Amino acid sequence: MKKFTLFLSILTSFFLQDPQLPEMNEKDTGAIVKASYLYNFGKYIDWPEEEKTGNFIISVMGGDNLYQELVKNYNSKQIGGQQIEIRKLSKTLKISDCHIIYIGEEYHDLLPEIAQKFKNTPTLVVSDGELTLSNGSAVAFVWNENNWLFDLKTPNAKSLYIGATLKSLARKVE
Fold it and tell me: What is the pLDDT of residues 60-97, one digit of tens each?
């Protein structure tokens, strides 16, 4: 766990030096860090037994750069023996079941409806900005002091077990 924390600290401090510009050298370093977080959320959450078969599905609505980073770096990896499958979603509420769903800023207007759809399911809803926690997101990425961090609202992830390890990495836990 200390290695994971050290890795994220080094990664964010190396890539993200200007608080106004989280991008550098034509790379969306925010997307790189968020993709790493999404992958590690999958590893550090205890999913119900019925969700531990088939592919481990990460869906992305918006966040084109994040989607590309996930496909490039994580599509061939596994979480708990499950092959990771990355899905790109369009602006629609016809969303199939998934383990993790990321809602980009351009689709925040749909967040309350999407969160309601997954309210009692083992799906982790992730978005940008701490205000999205009040709209149903369980995890919100936040830009804080030159780093991408995340806040957790565990009641918004009722069907998942979020252990102490992941909670300790969060900036804030509700």
Answer: 999 899 999 999 999 989 999 999 999 998 876 678 88
In terms of CATH architecture, what is 2-173? 3-Layer(aba) Sandwich (3.40)
Is the pTM higher than 0.90? The answer reads no
The closest of 110, 114, 95, 128 to 156, measured between CA atoms, is 114
With contact defined as beta carbons under 8 Å apart, do 70 and 58 qualify? yes
Q: Decide if 171 contacts 151 (C-beta within 8 A).
A: yes
**Boundaries of every domain in the chain:** 2-173
User: Could you say which residues of the chain have pLDDT below 50?
Assistant: 1-25
Using alpha carbons, select from 3, 6, 33 the residue that is nearest to residue 17: 33
